[in-house]
């Protein structure tokens, strides 16, 4: 029974550290009253102070539990880790302030309300998430639950980060608008708060050696900065619908073990942006790719596992899979919202990129189950299954049919006028994009110049280009 009081004591110290971390966020309250230059100097001085802070400082005794005899080294490691995290947060603020100062009088300036929002997300948001995570972990420890159940702590805490981040980032913008002589479109402010918070939750969910106090504020800040430069805004109710709809679908993928937590938030970010910049149907079209990909990953999974060609982690997709296959679609969806005069061209390019992602996934997952001898796409000579650039007749047929499905959907839902042209252009873009993927695998990937994700990334843009060029030639 001595373990439980010890756990409670550790939790108490953890709560103290999170409260101090959240308190750093109140720096936002000073923003309207002191200039950016002073804020830059303050963040730099904070970095220096945390760098040379003595280990036996009285605050450390309050934040860290007194070690058992012989465990002095463990305490030192914890203190150093805590100081490093605090310093990383100060470094993040300094970097954002420095960018703001350097670009102050340019069209690409970094607004102060974006920096305030990034700080709010990375302090109030992450601290709230850590409170929830540690409380859940304590409950699991008391119940002696296993590690797989402990993973369930991550989703509730990430959702808390998302909700708290949106609220506090939005309030930070209102605070600046109230005290400074600036006008911020409230719709855009809410839009940026959502984008920044989803990005922060995504970075926090990615297993990495990079401290969250660097990745979360910089990731949130850069994403909000990017979209603030577009001056694009939507009504809050539309933004809220896009967020909830994307989150629910991402959660279903997570629960059915199609996606991990990082893929859930990647898909949420993609969904929000695609729905907001284009419309719901184009996100549903992308979801068709994820559903087909997840389903065919499970197709004859035991057989593919037995020959060493199965998708790792039981076929669960991560953020790398999401972004490598969907970045082209995201770029085109944003272009659709910004350049409506090129809507038809962008739509066909979008169909081509989704068809490429679908065709490539089906070709890989179905083609590896073929009993015929694969051939190398660059030499047409027999090769082994699973080799980069290896293709089979079954895989080519799967790529063709998968691309055709993507072309059929906008026809069925009445999103295009010329059904024959839509199916033909989409199928051609997807099929050729899939084979470009294979050529890249046989050349650049085989030489170590591109990873599998890199190949998918390039191929999806190639598929978009093929469909776009065919559309221009026919019109």
From TrEMBL:
Query: Does the record carry Transmembrane as a key word?
Result: yes
Which family is it part of?
Answer: Belongs to the TMEM19 family.
Q: Does the keyword Ubl conjugation apply?
A: no
Domain of life where this protein originates: Archaea
Q: Which Pfam families match?
A: DUF92 (PF01940)
Per the record, membrane topology reads: Multi-pass membrane protein
Organism from which the protein derives: Methanolobus tindarius DSM 2278
How is this protein named in the record? Putative membrane protein
List keywords of the entry alphabetically: Membrane, Transmembrane, Transmembrane helix
Give the transmembrane ranges: 20-53, 88-106, 112-132, 153-176, 182-202, 238-254, 283-301, 322-339, 385-413, 419-442, 454-474
Q: Where in the cell is it found?
A: Membrane
**One GO CC term on file:** membrane
InterPro entries listed in its UniProt record: DUF92_TMEM19 (IPR002794)
